[in-house]
């Protein structure tokens, strides 16, 4: 059903003309993400050195095998998806349901070929406005749920903003969104732990599931470095004195089918080694509580499917970076394939 997706080939299919090589796609993608990442990293250039984090635990081959099988089953593109072209740029992925709905409801300027579905408008402001209108129509008809009244930026292959669009509309159109995730690490009684949040039972996505200490979407006009500080304050109660502890560490591409279409997102991952005296406290009602978890507890949570998908992906990336995943195991190669 699913296949593994090297980040470069996915980017080539989604963002760039078909004639461009996969190697060129990899260079373009990394340059785009690196430009944003450097701005985040620049904010950290004068921060104190991050303490060395060393875990004494190990992860068994049996557990790694199980985590790898779940990753393969959960992530990747489906062969039935169609590429969505906006003003001739390949910018999205459509599941069969949403492909049919778009063909039916787009008022003018829609065509289809073996390459995908093409929507045309009079420039990017008009395109953004028409997509917003279509999404709102679906929402009012009860076809598109989870309306947030919050806009995300849609960018071209060079990272240039084209227009903003209601975040709930990104999944039906399979458009590339951005999110931040923070790993909160703490040393307690000589052992390292992760602060893990439990999502509010009232959340629209993955209610009650375990999550990273903080995370969320990057709003229109916002930088990832700004978003992670905002989310850390709102979700975990970090104040400005703790912001210098937040470091950019990784970028991951999350691509998977979801009930509302296609989840297609760049995850900007940050680590923070927090003081043992710090106790996270939610401020916005989106987190039911926090728990300090060791490696064994995190493995149990992931293997029992109690952790939300992207939080698990971010946690696996942390396991890899901190030497808990054998470099020779296929899971390591898989993680390398989604790292940008």
TrEMBL record:
<dbReference type="GO" id="GO:0016787">
    <property type="term" value="F:hydrolase activity"/>
</dbReference>
<feature type="domain" description="Nudix hydrolase">
    <location>
        <begin position="175"/>
        <end position="316"/>
    </location>
</feature>
<dbReference type="InterPro" id="IPR015797">
    <property type="entry name" value="NUDIX_hydrolase-like_dom_sf"/>
</dbReference>
<keyword id="KW-0418">Kinase</keyword>
<dbReference type="InterPro" id="IPR000086">
    <property type="entry name" value="NUDIX_hydrolase_dom"/>
</dbReference>
<dbReference type="GO" id="GO:0016301">
    <property type="term" value="F:kinase activity"/>
</dbReference>
<dbReference type="Pfam" id="PF00293">
    <property type="entry name" value="NUDIX"/>
</dbReference>
<protein>
    <submittedName>
        <fullName>Thiamin pyrophosphokinase-related protein</fullName>
    </submittedName>
</protein>
<keyword id="KW-0808">Transferase</keyword>
<dbReference type="InterPro" id="IPR020084">
    <property type="entry name" value="NUDIX_hydrolase_CS"/>
</dbReference>
<keyword id="KW-0378">Hydrolase</keyword>
